Structures are given as structure tokens and as C-alpha cells.
UniProtKB/TrEMBL annotation, chain A:
It comes from Gymnodinialimonas phycosphaerae. This is AzlD domain-containing protein. The chain crosses the membrane at residues 12-32, 44-65, 91-108. It comes from the Bacteria. It holds the Pfam family AzlD. Keywords: Membrane, Transmembrane, Transmembrane helix. The keyword Transmembrane applies.
From TrEMBL, chain B:
Keywords: Cell membrane, Membrane, Transmembrane, Transmembrane helix, Transport. It is a multi-pass membrane protein. Belongs to the AzlC family. One of its GO terms (cellular component) is plasma membrane. InterPro entries: Brnchd-chn_aa_trnsp_permease (IPR011606). Pfam families: AzlC. GO terms for biological process: L-valine transmembrane transport. This is AzlC family ABC transporter permease. Its main location: membrane. The lineage of its organism: Bacteria, Pseudomonadati, Pseudomonadota, Alphaproteobacteria, Rhodobacterales.
Amino acid sequence: MTGWSAGEIWFIIAALGLATYVIRFSFLGLIGDRALPEWLLRHLRYTPVAILPALVTPLVVWPATADGALSPPHLAGAVAAMGIGYWRKSPIWAVVAGMGAFLVVRAVM
Amino acid sequence: MTPDTTTRTAFWRGARDCGPFLFVAGPFGMLFGVVGTEAGLNIAEVMGFSVVIIAGASQFAALQLMSEQAPTVIVLLSAIAVNLRMAMYSASLAPHVGGAPLWQRALIGYMNVDQTYAVSVLKYEATPQMTLSERVAYFFGTCLPIVPIWYAATLVGALLGQSIPTEWGLEFAVPVTFIAMIAPALRTPAHIAAAGASIILALAFAGLPYNLGLMPAGIGAMIVGAEVERRMGRSFTQPPGAPK
């Protein structure tokens, strides 16, 4: 990669790998099975449904390939995946519906 | 059934439940291999990213910033910010598998990624009667369609390099996986409120650089979910071992 020596690239890989591991192991390693307070558990229950939509929203609304504009294929795919996934309670049908809507809308545009 | 058969059953159940995400880990890993090679990394470096870091979104974030010649500290900080959500995954898994031996928790930590975490924690909440060894076996099962596939797909992508067109719709593989995990998890008004708040807050914080909006949006949405649950006066799912 231009501008980066092999040493710098491996430093980034090692530092990022170590930091990511420490983050993932943190609570599992430190707390073990000691009981957490109930208010904290009540918040942690919503971790997946609170973090993942925040991760997805910018990828759908401002996809890198659309240069900051709204992209109808992305929006159609997201709505289809969300609707079918909620209705069928099935991740696989959500992926099929979302990918299908994305590809169809992109093909007709 | 003996404990040995029940843990084996739990392992394969985990593998099956996480199976659909194979169709996302595969293309996504391959895409990283292709993009990393096109950006000028050699095969060892591309594989280093996938094996040592094993976190797709942050790998792409680091690669993007390195291509833009950003300073090393910015590359590291923004890629780490993308992964901070995993501290919450770790805290959220602790009540379920925190009693496992250290070496098992150490391995779970390494493979604690979006898909394995989400599939496992949703299973634990739906099935509180699972034993600790079943829960651990189930988690390792969910890793089977993800971790080896992630390595292999990265390698295939790196070997194929520039011969793959990036116009296959792979760019939608990431958001669609996450949506596929979220939608079936919207089981209660509190879950729906948390997801709605997450979307609104993510849009509101979108102007922050380096993905820094992810954490305030996520924490705000967790508070909304917990508050809706509290006001509705009941706990929807009580994890095993939780204080009554």
C-alpha cells in the first residue's frame, strides 16, 4: 500500500487486533458470573436492537457508492428486509427479500 | 440424554441457527480480500487483518483511512470506535456465559462478533433453561458458519484480487445482514422503541466524524428501550441468574 511501510501496516494490524480483543473480552473476562445490577441488565437487553440499527442507518441512507445521495435500491432493500424479517421472524427470508429488492430496483433504474 | 449429547446438540443447533449468515460472512470476507489487495496490501497483510482483528466493519474503516493517507492515530481511533459496541456485547453475554472457565471465555471473546453475539443472546433469552455448558456449546456452534468462512473467504478474495467485479451488489451485504438480525428481534414495544430511537439518533449524529455517532446513538437507544420496559411495568425476558 503506497505511503505505508510493512512495519507500519503490521503495527496497525497488531494494535487494532489487540484493542478489539480487549474490548470483546472486557466484561466477560472481568465480571465472569458475578451478578450485575438489575437496571444495568435492563439496559443490556436492548444492546443488539440499539446498536445494530445505528450501525446500519448510515450505510442505507448514505451508501458510499451514491456520493451522499439517497439510493432507491438501498432504501427498497432495507424496507423489504425489515418488513419480511419482522413478519416471518426469519433472518434468511429477510436477507433473500432485502437482496432481491435491492437487485431488482437497481436493475430497473 | 447425557450432558455430552446435549452439548453436542446445542453446538449443532447454534451452527444451524447462525447458518444463514454464512451467505453474508462469505461475500463480505471475499470483498475485504479483493478490496485489500486492490488497495495494495499483500496476501499476508490482508489475512493479518481478517485473522488478528476479525471485525469486518472496522477492517474496512481502517483500509479506507489508510488509502486516504490518514495519520496512524486516526486510523486506529476510528477503527476502534467502530468496535466499541462489542464492549456492550461482552457485558450482555456475561450473565449468560460468565460462569464458563477462563479459556472458554477467552475464546468467546475472540469470536464475539455481531452475528455470533446476536444469534446466541437471542437464543439465551428465548430459552432460559439452557445449562451453562449448553450455552457455551451453542455459542461455539454459531461461530462455525462465521469464523472459518471469514478466513477462507478473505483468502479467496485476496487470491482473486482484481479479477472480481465489485458490482455484484456486495455493498448491500453488510446492511442487509444487520437488518436480518434486527427485524426478528423486535419482539416487544420496548425493542421496537429502542430500534426506532437508534435510527433517529444515528441520523441526528451522522455529522460526527469517524463513526463517533455510533456510541451516543446506541447508548441513547438502550436507555429508551429500558425506560419503555420499566414504564410498562414488567420484564419481558429475565436472563437466568438475574436478580429478581
